[in-house]
Amino acid sequence: MQNDNMETSQRSIMHFDPKAHEIALSTEDLHVFYGQSEAISEGDLQFERYKISSLIGPSGSGKSTFLRSLNRMNDRIATVKGKIMYRGLDINSNDIDVYEMRRHIGMVFQRPNPFAKSIYENIAFALRQRGTNKKQELDEIVETSLRQAAMWDQVKDDLNKSALALSGGQQQRLCIARAIAVKPDILLLDEPASALDPVSTSQIEDTLLELKQNYTIIIVTHNMQQASRISDYTAFFNMGKVLEYAETGDIFTNPKVDITNDYISGNFG
Amino acid sequence: MNAKRIDKVATGILYAIAGFVVIILIALLGYILVQGVPEISWHFLTSPALAFEAGGGIGIQLFNSFYLLLLALLISLPISLGAGIYLNEYAGQNTITGLIRTTIEILSSLPSVVVGLFGYLFFVVQFKLGFSILSGAFALTVFNLPILTRSIEEALANISDSQREAGYALGLSRWETVTKIVVPAALPSIITGVVLSAGRIFGEAAALIYTAGQSAPALDFSNWNPFDISSPLSPLRPAETLAVHIWKINSEGIMPDAKAVSAGASAVLIIAVLLFNFLARWLGKRLYKHLTAE
C-alpha cells in the first residue's frame, strides 16, 4: 500500500488546454481486466490531433493492452471499463457500431499481416466491402495510399503480385497503406517496426512523420530512440498505470518521475 | 555404449521400420497393378458387366462410383464447411463445443459397415428411398462428414489470428473476415482435404452394400433426364460401385473370368485413389503458390 501511495504521488500527467489544442481522442478512467486480473488501471490520456504520441514502458506494462482497447480490438479478450471519447462520443459504450468506428480508428500490428491476396487487392478489398466499386476510384485510392506509405514506385508494376512475396518491411508498409486507404482519422500502431531491420525501420519512421500531416498517430514502441525521434508526446506506462505523460523532449531530458528516469536510462525493462 | 553409437543404432532401426512400411505398400500396389493392369482396356472400362459370360466390363460401376462421389461431396461439403467454420471461428470454449467435438470424433471412428447398416435402416427402409444412389450418397455423407469437418477446422485453425485482426482493424465484421479472408487463405488446405476425402469415398464398399445396392442395371447414356429411372443421372436407381463390384465378384461372382475382372477392377480402383492423392497434393501446392507468388 505504501508503494501504491508513492506511485500515485509520483505521477505526472499532462492535460491539454482544450482551447489551445485540438484533442482527437481521449480516455477517461480506463480500466482493462483479463478475467479477474487488472491489466490497466486509471488510464487517463488525451491525444492531440495531427501529432504522434508514443506509449513506452517495460514489457507487461499494459501499453499494448491500452492501445488495443482504443479501437476495441480487445473486445472478445478483455473487459474494458471507462470512457474513450472520440468526437464527443464514448466509443467504449455498447451501442457503438464497432465496425464503423474502426474505419475511423485504424490499426497496424507488430507483425506485418498482409492478406493472402495481391498487393492491389490488399488495399481495394476492404473498400469494395463498403461499396466502393468503380475501378477508376479504386485505382486512385490504391495509388494514393501506396504513395503515402512511400512504396508506390517500388510496386507500381507488380500490383497483381501476391503481397506475401514482399519483404517484411514492404509488407509492413503495405499494411500501413491498407490502413490509411479506408481514410481513418486516427492510426494506432503496435510496435510496427519491432520485427523489421534498421533500414526498413527508418523508412517506416519517415513514413509516419509524413503521415502526421493528415493523421493523428498513436504508437506503442519498445525502442526509446524511436519514441524520441518521431513523437511529439510520450506516455510512460508501468504496471498498468500511466506514470508520466509529457512532451517527448521533456520526458527524455527531464523526467519528473523516478521510475521513468530509471527506464529511459536503461536501468530496467 | 556412448551417445553417438546409440544415435547410430536408433537411426538404423528407424530406417528399417520406415523401409518395412514402404516395402509392404510397394508390394501391395505392385501385386495389384501387375495382376490388374493387363486386364484394363477401353472395352473393359466402358462396357457393362456380364453376370454369366466372360468379357464383361466395369463401365457402369465406374460411372456410378464417380456419380456417387459427386453427390456425396455436394451434400457433405457445405455441411462440413459450415460446421468447420462454426467450430473454429464462432464456437466458444465451453461444454457444448466440447460435446460437439466428442460427437464428431465418435462419428469418425464408426466402422463403415455400421454406417452402411444405419443407412439401410434409416434411408432405405425408413425414408423409403430404396437401394438407390441417394441412399448411398447419404450414407457416404455420414461417413465423410466427421473427417471433412475436422480437416476443414484444422485448415482454418492454421490461419494466423493476425489475419483476422487485420480484417477487424479495417472495420470488417466477423462474417466478412471469415468468408473473405480466412476461408480463401485456407483454401489450399481445404481443397487438399476435400480431394483426399474423395479418395476415401471412392474406395468405400461396406457403407454402400446395403444402401446404394449391389446391382447395376443397364443405363441409357443418351437419356439425361434425371427423373427417368434408366437415366444415368437418376438418383433413385440402384447403383453398384466399383468397390462394391469387386467385393461382390470375389464373394459370389459366377462369370468364368471373375478373377480377371476382379483384378482389373482393383487396379482401376487403386489407380483412381492414387490419382486423387496426387491431385490433392498438386492442387494444394499450386493454389498455395498462386497465393504466395505471382
From TrEMBL, chain A:
GO terms for molecular function: ATP binding. PROSITE patterns: ABC_TRANSPORTER_1, ABC_TRANSPORTER_2. Residues 25-264 form the ABC transporter domain. InterPro entries: AAA+_ATPase, ABC_transporter-like_ATP-bd, ABC_transporter-like_CS, P-loop_NTPase, PstB-like. Keywords: ATP-binding, Cell membrane, Membrane, Nucleotide-binding, Phosphate transport, Translocase, Transport. It comes from the Bacteria. This is Phosphate ABC transporter ATP-binding protein PstB. It comes from Lactiplantibacillus daowaiensis.
TrEMBL record, chain B:
The keyword Acyltransferase does not apply. The chain crosses the membrane at residues 12-34, 66-87, 99-123, 129-148, 181-202, 260-280. The keyword Chloroplast does not apply. Keywords: Cell membrane, Membrane, Transmembrane, Transmembrane helix, Transport. Coiled coil: none annotated. It comes from the Bacteria. Its main location: membrane. It is found in: Cell membrane. InterPro entries: MetI-like, MetI-like_sf, Phosphate_PstA. Residues 62-280 form the ABC transmembrane type-1 domain. It is a multi-pass membrane protein. PANTHER family: ABC TRANSPORTER PERMEASE PROTEIN YQGI-RELATED (PTHR43470:SF4), PHOSPHATE TRANSPORT SYSTEM PERMEASE PROTEIN PSTA-RELATED (PTHR43470). Belongs to the binding-protein-dependent transport system permease family. CysTW subfamily. This is Phosphate transport system permease protein PstA.
